[in-house]
Write the structure tokens for this entry.
Amino acid sequence: MWTALFITGAAWVYVSNRVCKFGWAKKLTKDNEKKKALLGGGLTAVGVCITGFILGFVNAMVCLIYFALAWLLCDSLFWAIEKLSGAKFSAYYAGVAAVLLAICALAAGWYYDHNVWQTNYVLKTEKNVNDLRIVAFADAHLGTTFDAKGFAKHVAEMEKQNPDVVLVVGDFVDDGTSKEDMVEACRLLGNMKTKYGVYFVFGNHDKGYYGAQYRGFGIDVLVSELLKNNVRILQDESVQINDDFYIVGRRDFSEVRERRGYRQSMQELMRNLEPEKFVIVADHQPADFDGEANAGADLVIAGHTHGGQLFPFNSVGKWIGANDEIYGLSRRKNTDFIVTSGISAWAIKFKTGTKSEFVVVDVKGN
């Protein structure tokens, strides 16, 4: 948070300064430095306040940062052109280009966040398991980019894939989710047509950060609605399906990191499982890849990272050691790992470094 505030402050200063480079700003202030500073700061403040009123404070910060990045890029590019050509631009074209570039980047980010794609993976295993189709999604954050009515459309698309099993890999709801949307979304999950059912693990947002009164329901109500609709909740539990494969659902890492709780190690969870059978692990945060690989899991599906969400900050989570991977398919030892960008996102309504998705995983057995 402190890093984000520092970057936002730096962006504010930079954008305020660059606004004053336009010819109309110089004429309006008669090129007086104090007046230019007031004008630039005031216009930036108005823009941030309007954006914040419409999209929220977090998204106003994102927009401001993108305008600063676009301006920095265009200023550098036009400066280099002037140096190489030996000519001077008659107007502040870098500023015009920066504004257009920022608007285009944010518009694309809005589109990629508010639309959901399908990503397919085909995995092969030497284990004796029947061919299996898994549909998995994470990070619905219900209420951010779609409500229950919008979720119904995504459920319909997932159903078209004829899944054997559906995995909900955390952050299904958020603090901004209404009780009505939660109840309807749970009903939609329960009505999904699958061969072996729908399985659910919690993410760090599902239990809420601001208490039950803030969003109108507590974790007990969410659990009740899921169970009422025959959605199987796995909290450090495993279930054997049709004597063919296992699904292991882990407690979220936030139970340890944020709530001072406990979750079992992967070794503990795998202790009584038959090693010759295929093991699928649903773990919201991609933060225990070594443990899961060493324990002998075959496939781990995670979310949480939103695929990096914002370029060029995609890999920050990996750089600081919070996540083992940010997005896509990777492999450690004999374990395949898939990190999905999720079908929505928390608070931030833009995805400039990835796109929203659900994943379809076809496992081909020996």
Summary: The CA atoms of residues 200 and 328 lie 21 Å apart. The chain is about 45% helix and 15% strand.
